[in-house]
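Margin note from the TA: students keep mixing up input and output lines. Inputs are the sequences; the output is the structure of the whole complex. Example:
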Amino acid sequence: MKGAHMTNKMARADKSVKTDSPHTAGHADATGGLGISDRTDMPNGGAAPDGTRRRYWRAGLLRGRIELRHLLRNPKELSGHLTNVVVALLIAGYVSDDVPGTDSPMAHLVIAGFAAYLLFQIGLINLPQMLVTEREEGVLLRLRATPGGIPAYLVAKCLLVVVTAVGTLALLLVIAALLVDGPLPHGPGGWLTLLWVMTLGLLAVVPLGAAIGAVLPNPREALALIMLPTMGLLVTSGAVFPITSLPVVVQQVASVFPLKWMAQGLRSALLPDSARVAEAAGSWELPMVALVLTAWAVLGFLLAIPLLRRAARRESGSRLTARHRKAAQSGAMPA
Amino acid sequence: MTTLKRTSAPHTAPPGHTPATPSPTARPIVQARGLTMAYGDTHVLHGIDLDIHRGEVFALLGPNGAGKTTTVEILEGFRQRSAGEVRVLGSDPERGDDAWRGRIGLVLQSWRDHRRWRVAELLTHFAMYYPDPRDPAELLALVGLTEQADQRVERLSGGQRRRLDVALGIVGRPELLFLDEPTTGFDPQARHEFHVLVERLARDEGVTVLLTTHDLVEAERLADRIAMLVNGRIRACGTPSELARRAAAQAEVRWTADDGTPRRERTEDPSQLVWELHRDAGGPIADLEVRRPTLEDTYLHMVHRKADGADGADGTDVVVDREAPAV
């Protein structure tokens, strides 16, 4: 009897913990031993009622606002976001040619490329790093121990990412327009393209970044692990110079990843239509942009949900202690 | 700090707050039967039984690696047990939902989260998640952090940080508070302040506390009941005075025999033995000494046996020097 029970428990060990409500059947195994009723004296045992859910949303939005304020007051982190803007402006100010075969200035292509890269970086570098760091410090565990904490955390992170993305992008475009005669969308159609490419682009990289953040070991290794492939993509995606000047194989590899399509979509929004002759396909391929970005978004969500759930479930005090001990030994964090 | 100094005044009286005397019908707030944790063939917990009643401070006392953290993490719903029945606030912790989470509070030793947040800002934020939170300002006064309200969390001392963790742990008015090795690494002053805070929570706020510690003095000072956990088994459980009585039950009588050899004998009735010795000798006994072991003697003896690995009659016992990995 005991043996059978044990196997049963062991078999469950891999499955998610908190899926069933306490009232579901199949719970009979637990009632027998203690001889106590399975009635839970919870005020609201089932799904969270509307009031509760509203409270969690409010907490999440407020949390996002506070995190944003902390970001704006942290010179180190803020400069990380602004460096790209500055680099983009410097390069744009430096190049004076036109995009080959067109009368659009090369600077505009650079600005559009960096705009795409900004989104890409926020989703795939900043977000995973933030997740890993906060996991290591115990933020995730604290929120896991708080009712509604994990949903609120996700709401806050989404808010933070969207505001950071819109903010840096706006900053880049406005400063570029003022200082180096940078590109702005042409007409309502251009703005609309900018909006949907940006939205789809974020959807393509943010869930993916969350999935990466859920599996990376620690903040120190995390940066090294993500930085290299991202830089590689920046160069090969035609973000900063026309993709047609790259070998075909490299173009094909780069076109699997979302950065190329984000850059292409933003170019279509920011450059005049005549500039499309410089594209590899001779057109903006907007349906393809939408398709690839959507595919990445779907993939990202499929990966992120189970991985984030797993990461939150695995958090416990002893894991946290073990990580801190390891970090202290490697001298990265005060003991 | 001023608040804490003020609250320490009542403790000129003995620190024993009213021990919880549960009515026979009241269901324990924590129940465990045959709680077992095994990783493959390695058993970390061997069928633990626990009952913790509403309103009491319960200490799980044991050396490092005894299984305290594993036990507590199972009760907190952070770890899946291998076998046994567990009920915390009427639910299986593995199936605890948000409403259940809202009824327990946690204070872990390794939290260093939200470093950039300000103290009051953080506490006010976490109050938002609960339907009926405590007032953050009152709570800061309770844990003696009113003066630090606008400070960044990263600038708090170790003791202040842990008191903030307590404030965060009880902001949602939990019925049960877990304190995992709360005073590890504290200096005596911080430790004392923390003890006063826990006593106050239990006495004035009626919070049920499950405390883990490897320090017998801390357990004796704070707990209504103590369970000694050594090598994954509960070796003794009771009020501090019960345990002390039990420890002292077997007195050791020492004397020097006529031929000059030192002798010792353990007995439950030292008076009888001494009387017999006198009767047999027909006079005084040289170097006669009756010694009752203290609770500390007993505890150290248990811990010592564990360290020697001498405990393992059934062959399943192992010495676990580290906390087991999480699943």
